[in-house]
Amino acid sequence: MSDRILGAAGLAVAIFYIWSATLIELSFISDPVGPRTFPIIIGVLLGLASIVILLRPDAEPHWPSIGRFAEIAGAVVVMVAYALLLPVAGFVIATAGASAVLTWRLGTAPLYAVIAGILTSLGIYAVFHLVLGLTLARGPLGF
């Protein structure tokens, strides 16, 4: 029964996500694909996966323990904090912090988690900003 609830919830999220994507305003100089296409593709994939879960549930699903639920809730809190800090702290600082915390929670030693967070942030910044030329949120340090 819990898989069916998860599938129904996923399907509802997919429908809401696709509907939200259709509300994205198009610029008169947008490319042929447009900014709506990628979110709609993600929504369709989520909807298809949810339908599969809804129609073919596991007989005996194994739910994680309360400790694992707390870890998942902590990861969600980190991602919400990341979204809130991104415009204030900038991409590099916010991403380094979120990556470090998530890496630490995955079992890395704290010092290595900080190093991994910084390197992950700088690597993503180099690929998306320097190579692909995308604009990322600027922080107080100017990048």
UniProtKB/TrEMBL annotation:
Membrane spanning stretches: 36-55, 76-104, 110-137
Keywords of this entry: Membrane, Transmembrane, Transmembrane helix
Keyword Membrane: yes
Ranges for domain DUF1468: 6-136
Protein's UniProt keywords contain Transmembrane helix: yes
InterPro entries reported in the protein's UniProt record: DUF1468
Listed name of the protein: Tripartite tricarboxylate transporter TctB family protein
Organism: Microbaculum marinisediminis
